[in-house]
């Protein structure tokens, strides 16, 4: 019996295996080459620090009058009044105020519909303007208050809506805490005293008081570590020391002594 | 590149396994492609040749030309069985058996056996494609789940859940599923394709067996 399988020319399994491996290698190299050609574009967003009340904190020296001449910093961002709360109450109030006056008016038929609308409009505008002004005053007062109490660099002579070094540090810490924040108890609180050397390095960090939430304490430690990379030298090259109260919602500057 | 190198050991193992699955399944795809292609084209040529020639022994002499066709195997098996049946055996005296229908039965059995062995040959390795197609997504998924587990563990350790911490781990993990799908999709497609092709070849073999038996029976009956 002559079996035809002897004359078969099956492509060897080994050849196919090698061919398959070569194809895979080629595809892989193609992908790598493609990756080289078009490297993934990872955009690192630069963080901007715009604190509306305590003006520019990106560079603590910027706001102080002492260094005014050597540092031409970009202009501070425009002061945005904390408005946006007006529309609802403003719309409501004219209706309430106008209604009682209506029974008194009906005899005066002289006032037409359009005139009435005009008057309403004027009233509304007046009210809005007054409110805006009040808001502006309020925020201005805030700025003034902040600057008069502790704004300006330590040792700076003038009063300006600038940043105190403590506020600068606080801003950095707050930013870092946003990333690391985690806690297990309801309202944890940690009081930390930081010492920063004249070169702007974190020299010491001491937890003086804690609500006992270990996880939050850890988060605070990490936040301080993270923030310490961005510390700059304190003004006048002095050692800076300040306490900060860490809460999940933010950080408050504690007692400061120099 | 970095995404693969940065992955954990389990994810790397999963990726390696999937890669080997892919390489082997593509080797099988190539192998089967050439095998089925040749079987098809040579079967066609063999059938042409078969219908043109008048005598079985003439065909038997030339059959090696179409060695890759499963039909030639059928023909050879049938023909050799037929020779045994028809040719007077030295031990038994008469030609009593040859004209008997039992001879046709013998040939039929030989053809059926040859058909089965050819089906086995054609379907060889196809199960691996089916296995790759059905399991490699799961293997990839396993790698992904594992990677995400470790990523979350890392998040728990650092305590921060920012996108910068979460995203790379998950991207690393997801690549396992991607590779699993890359391995599975061609395997499933090729499996279905070859199943269809082999079914066509089986039909051809069946009809050839019937034709062969018809011719044998006609000739034996005509004797």
Give structural attributes.
heterodimer; A: 258 residues; Fusion Protein Consisting Of Minor Coat Protein, Glycine Rich Linker, Tola, And A His Tag, Chain: A, Domain 2; flat; B: 223 residues; mainly alpha; 86% helix; 0% strand
Structure overview:
The complex is a heterodimer of chains A (258) and B (223). Chain A is 42% helix and 12% strand. With 258 residues, chain A is an alpha+beta fold. Chain A has a four-stranded antiparallel beta sheet. The model of chain A is unreliable at 62-72, 88-105, 145-152 and 154-162 (pLDDT under 50). Chain B contains eight helices and no strands. Chain B has helices at residues 2-5, 9-52, 56-62, 70-86, 96-99, 101-123, 126-158, 163-222. Chain B is rod-shaped, with a radius of gyration of 28 Å. Chain A binds chain B through residues 1-11, 13, 16-17, 19-21, 23-24, 32, 35, 179-182, 215, 218-219, 222, and chain B through 1, 19, 22-24, 26-31, 34-35, 38, 60, 63-64, 66-68, 72-73, 76-77, 80, 158-162.
SSE order of chain B in H/E notation?
HHHHHHHH
Distance between the termini of chain B: 76 Å
Shape of chain B: rod-shaped
- What percent strand of chain B? under 5%
Number of domains of chain A: 2
Shape of chain A: flat
Number of helices of chain B: 8
Helix content of chain A: 40-55%
Helix content of chain B: over 70%
> What is the subunit organization of this protein?
heterodimer
Please summarize the sheet with the most strands of chain A: 4 strands, antiparallel
Question: In which order are the strands of the major sheet of chain A placed?
Answer: 2-1-3-4
- What share of residues are in beta strands of chain A? 5-15%
Helices and strands of chain A, in order, run as HHHHEEHEE
Low-confidence stretches of chain A: 62-72, 88-105, 145-152, 154-162
